[in-house]
Amino acid sequence: MERKQNYSRKREAILKAIRSTTIHPTAEWVYQKVKPEYPDLSLGTVYRNIAQFKKDGTILSVGIVNGQERYDGNVNPHTHFVCSCCGAVIDIPGSFISSSTNSEIAEKFHVRVDSSEVLFRGICSNCLQRQRPF
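-> structure tokens emitted (134 positions)
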């Protein structure tokens, strides 16, 4: 039996904080953002709600960047670029894997492909600019 989530202002504030930014925040960032409005908020509450949002498909996990999991409130198809210098996570619009590629993988390896992801890594434009000699 599926459990229905009760409405919670804290839950809504956590989701709003994640969706209101493009920096791909950590749970700690979300906690710091929401805590002033809800002084009794715990970091555990933030983590529990984030876990539920991920499970429901309401948000995405970008993965671990510099030792911390980063989240994305944009669940529309896109990929990410992660800067190896500063850890910035940047949205890259577009699809880089075709549905035919997913079908080929499924057929070749006898699996069902539910989704696929592309992650680019390198150095962002800000870090490249800082590395240029003057």
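The mean pLDDT is 92.
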